[in-house]
Amino acid sequence: MNKNMLLAAVSLVAISATAPALAADLAARPYTKAPAMIATVYDWSGFYIGINGGGASAHTTWDQRAPLVGGEGSHNATGGTVGGQVGYRWQSAQWVFGLEGQGNWADFSGDNLSALTGFTNRSKIDSFGLITGQVGYAWNNVLLYIKGGAAVVGTKNELRLAGATVASVSDSRWGGTVGAGLEFGFAPNWSVGVEYNHIFLSDKDITFTGIQTDRVRQDVDMGLVRLNYKFGGPILAKY
C-alpha cells in the first residue's frame, strides 16, 4: 500500500514537471501579416524614338490668278507614308507633357481637269515634317493625348497635257498641325499607338513660267500607326 502511494506520488510530480514543456510545444504560432500588394504604375517619362506608317488625303484647290482669274477645280491627293519620330515626355501625376519631331516620306498624289484650260492640274506631297508639343492623360500604361505645332511639306505641282508634263514646280510649304493619339505600353519600354493629324497649309501662288499663275490651297488629313521605344525604366513601384 505504501509502495503504491509512493509510486502515485512520483508519477504526479513527473507529470507536473513536464506539463509546461508540453504546453509550450502546443502553443499557437504567432500570426504573421502577409506583405502588402505592390501596384505597378507605368512611367511615360523619358526620351523615345520610333517609326510610323499610314495613309492620308490632301484636299487641293487650284484658282488661276493669271492670265485668267477663276477657279480651276479641286482634287484629293491620296496615298501612303512612312517615317520616324523622336521626342521626350515627362509625367506629373497622371498628366503627361511632351515635345516631338517627326519626319516622313510620302506619296500623296491626285489631279483634276482644269475648268478654265485644257491642262490637268496635278499635285503631289512627297515629304513632310512636324514639330509639336503634346499634352496627355495616362491611365497606367494607356495614354490619351492631343498635339499641335508647326508643319513643313514638300510639294510638287504640275500642268499636264495628254499625259505629258508641260510644266512643274517643286517647293516647300509651311503651315500648322493639330492632332490626337492613343498609345498603349505593351511591354517594358515599348508602346504602340494610333494617331490622327490635320495639316493646314497657307495659300501659295505657284507660277508656271510663261504659262500661268495659280493659287494653291492644301489641307491634309492623316492617320498613322506608331511604334515607340523609350529609353529608361518604364515601371515605378507604388506602395
TrEMBL record:
Residues 13-212 form the Outer membrane protein beta-barrel domain. Residues 1-23 form the signal peptide. Keywords: Cell outer membrane, Membrane, Signal. The keyword Cytoplasm does not apply. The keyword Membrane applies. It is found in: Cell outer membrane. It comes from the Bacteria. Belongs to the Omp25/RopB family. PANTHER family: BLL7405 PROTEIN (PTHR34001). This is Porin family protein.
